[in-house]
Amino acid sequence: MEVRLAELLRFVAANEGASTARAAKSLGMAQSELGRLLAILGDDAAVGGLGLVGIREDGSRRCLQLNAQGRAWLEQHA
């Protein structure tokens, strides 16, 4: 799971504003897996989210963005 989390985090950093559909397709994962990973990388308190990735609504699309904590984490662990 850690590998998939890292892949998703790097994808978001490289593709700021990409939709969740594009992320899932590009990374070869189901929307359900993407949702679970985003809960961990996001700020979902129910699962102890890390607060590294944000999701913004753009009409009917859900777009991914790396927040300041995510950028700092990537810089430290690059």
Report on this structure.
With 78 residues, the protein is an alpha+beta fold. The model has no long low-confidence stretch (mean pLDDT 93). The radius of gyration is 11 Å and the shape is globular. Strand 1 and strand 2 (61-66) form a beta hairpin. The protein has four helices and two strands; from the N terminus they run H-H-H-E-E-H. Helix 1 (2-14) packs across helix 3. A two-stranded antiparallel sheet has the order 1-2.
Summarize the structure.
It is built from four helices and two strands. With 78 residues, it is an alpha+beta fold.
Number of strands: 2
Oligomer: single chain
Q: Average pLDDT, to the nearest integer?
A: 93
| Poorly predicted runs of 5 or more residues | none
Integer-rounded radius of gyration = 11 Å
Please state roughly what percent of the residues sit in beta strands, choosing from under 5%, 5-15%, 15-25%, 25-35%, 35-45% or over 45%.
15-25%
Question: Structural class, judged by helices and strands?
Answer: alpha+beta
What is the H/E string?
Answer: HHHEEH
Main sheet characteristics: 2 strands, antiparallel
Distance between the termini: 18 Å
- DSSP summary: helix tally: 4
What is the helical fraction, as a range of percent?
40-55%
User: What does the overall shape look like?
Assistant: globular
- Give me the side-by-side strand order of the main sheet: 1-2
